[in-house]
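Write out the 3D structure for:
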Amino acid sequence: MSHDIVQEKVITALQGALQEAKRKGQLKVESVPTLTLDLPKRPEWGDLASTVAMSLAPSEQRAPYDVAQIILENIAQREMLFDRVEIVRPGFLNLTVKRNLWLEVLAEIEAQGPSYGRTTMGQGRRVLVEYVSANPTGPLHVGHGRGAAVGQAIAKLLLAAGYDVVQEYYINDAGRQMKLLGASVYARYQELLGQAATFPEDGYRGAYIEAVAAQVREREGTSLLNLPAEQAEQRCRELAYKDLLEKIGQDLRSFGIEFDAWFSEASLLASGGVEQVLADLRARDLLFEQDGAWWFRSSSFGDEKDRVVRKQEGDYTYLASDIAYHRDKLQRGYDLLIDVWGADHHGYIPRMEAVVQAYGYPKERLRVVLVQMVNLLRGGRKVEMSKRAGEFITMREVMDEVGADAAKFFFLMRRSDTHLDFDLELAKQQSAENPVYYVQYAHARIASLFRVAGERGLAVPKPTEADLSLLCDPDEFGLIRKLSAYPSVIQASAAALEPHRVTFYLQELASLLHTFYFKHRIMPSAVDQDVAEAAAFVKDAHATTTQREHVSPGLTGARLALMYAVRQVLRNGLGVLGISAPERM
């Protein structure tokens, strides 16, 4: 299902009107524009608005208003779909949909349950989402945390949009950084044994290196002191790599992330995969030698200049391994490769697009999502660096302080390619000021309402079990319209690879729910209402309470059924973000 059911029916009606007008010769309709519907800026203008008449006016060589009138005349079963249709100059079609159509949304949510919002847009196409992929030379920092949240949410969005998704972590376990890790740990190991040691100039610092060195000492005793330095560093590298990669895996699991595959860069080198790829490129004249180095002709595919893949000294560059890795991905038959990178890799995109094209694929086969830095604040003031990590705040420290759910929601609250201010104190607040608490509390509030109903012997009807015709209040229909938009939000978020759209949507839905809860009685007595507590969660400071309104048993059932649908959509949306929907808070 690509749109919400109301939009689907309205779009189908407009398409039918265009076809009928063409059949009658009233319009040429040489090419039907993509039909989209907008929400009018004011509720009195209607439920939905279409600009199709203005899109067609140039090709029809007619005034948009006249085109709109022809469309309006040809809408089949107009009285069954719409309470009101108005043409507003220059040619807007403002559409007020029949109430019973909106009420069908609630039955649709009940029928689909956890699947509500899922679409078939992806048609089962295979996608590989590679994210985090941090060097196993230290703990994950807060920037990796944002990349992890974004990567997982993109994977879950694509799954919801009908793609076949695999999540992969690329382990950069070869090259200079790994050698530096071994040398750093060996230096600290020597110091722990009272030996003088020269710490590498660019080595890894921080208490975590000392902790790894202590584990090496515990495991190996003094035996490494009897080895040549190169062998001792190699052993330290092996042990440190294993320990640090294990901790990275533990941190990610604590964050609720499980990768389908872990791919080792070292395995590419050991299997001869890099040499094979470079030989293949050389055979196709896409590699050339100059000044003793080997260069990839990336400029032939839109990059600003050619790039070195093997240095004069014979060492491979990162690009050489990345070429082999991305070729391996392509050979595995994925229809789309998505890489989630730090924003500092922006300049790397054209060369990787060149790689994809060099192997005969369109550059669109690769999509790169950039993730900007995170500024950690505490009550508005910048947080100092971590003592344990030495140079950065770890993902684990943030997660331990605010919880995985809050961390994920905050990481996903802005476009991933924009800087993010993350206030730790705000993320811990149990108030409306804390966005994740605000959304999760909406779900918990409905769960609490249902518990109270159960205690009072009231059944919580599903939408198909309630008399929904009793729902007449504009606030009720505001909630239903927002629920109906959820499938479109999922589709648009998946297409754009922008999970932050879902966080925005959930905050808007939660705001409508809290406001409704404060303004309206749901059950016959005020047992379920605590006005003072509820008021704290209302964004609109001018909301007026109607706690004294009379609620019949039928209306209670209808409103509980509405709450049933709201709870389902909140749960579905939080699930797409990898965030829990608590029953109690």
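Residues 356 and 362 are 7 Å apart (CA to CA).
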